[in-house]
Amino acid sequence: MGARSFPFLERARGRDGPGAPSIERALEDLPDEALAVRAKDDGPAFALIYDRYVDRVYRYLRYRTSDPRDAEDLTSEVFLRALRAIGRYAPRAPFSAWIYRIARNAVVDHHRSRRELASFDDMADRADGHPAGDPEGHVIAIDRRERMRRAVEHLPDEQQEVIVLRFIEGLSPEEVAGVIGKRASAVRDIQFRALHALRRRVAPEELAS
User: What is the CB neighbour count within 10 angstroms for residue 179?
Assistant: First the structure.
C-alpha cells in the first residue's frame, strides 16, 4: 500500500524506554474499540490502529475509486480525519464501522469534488488461491474475477457498496448498517437484491467461489 505514513506514527512506533516492549504487547492484545479509546491520548495506540486498518481501508477505497493514486491519497486523508476525530469516538458501535464511515464520507467528498460517479476498479489484485505452479488455474481465476467485476459495476451504487463491505471486507450486516446509516434488515434486503441481480449475470458457481 503506497499511502504515506505520518511522522508522529513512526516516532510512536520507535519509542523506547523502560517497559516499552511490554507496553506494545499490552496494546496489541486490546480489541479495536479499547485501542481506539486509548488512542485519544496515546500515539502508539493510534499507530497500532493505523497498522491494523491501513490495508483494509486502502482496499475499500481502491474498489470505490478509479485510480490507485486517488485511493492512496484518500487513505491518508481517512487517517488524518480519524486522528482529528478520535477524541469524539465512543465505543457504542464497532470501531470498524466508525473508520469505514469516515472512508465512505471521504469517497463521497472525492466524487463530489470531481463531479464523477463512483466506480469499481480491477479486482485482479485479490488473492486467487491458486498456486504459482498452476498457470491455467490462475488465468481462469483472473477471468472469473474480471467477469464478476463487470457484473458488480452494473449494480446501483448502494448495492455495490454493500457487496464490497460484506464480501470483500467481511463486515457483518450490523457493521455495514453502521457504515451506511441503515438498519441491518435493510442491509440484508439490499444484499439480497444485489445477489439476485448478480445471479442473472454470472454463473451460480462463480458467485460461490
Answer: 26
CA distance 141 to 135: 10
CA nearest to 63, candidates 186, 164, 196, 180: 164
- The residue assigned the cell 480491477 is 122
- Cβ neighbors of 206 (< 8 A, separation 6 or more) are 144, 147, 148
Say what the pTM is.
0.65
Residue ranges per domain, the chain? 7-114, 135-208
pLDDT one-digit tens code per residue, 18-56: 445 555 677 787 899 999 999 988 888 999 999 999 999
As a whole number of angstroms, the distance between CA 158 and CA 190 comes to 8
Alpha helices in the chain (DSSP H): 7-13, 20-28, 32-38, 43-64, 68-85, 95-114, 135-153, 157-163, 173-180, 184-199, 204-208
How far apart are alpha carbons 128 and 78 in whole angstroms? 28
Between CA 24 and CA 95 the distance in angstroms is 20
Name the maximum alpha-carbon separation found in the chain. 61
- Which amino acid makes up residue 61? L
CATH entry 1.10.1740.10 includes domain 7-114: yes
CATH number of 135-208: 1.10.10.10
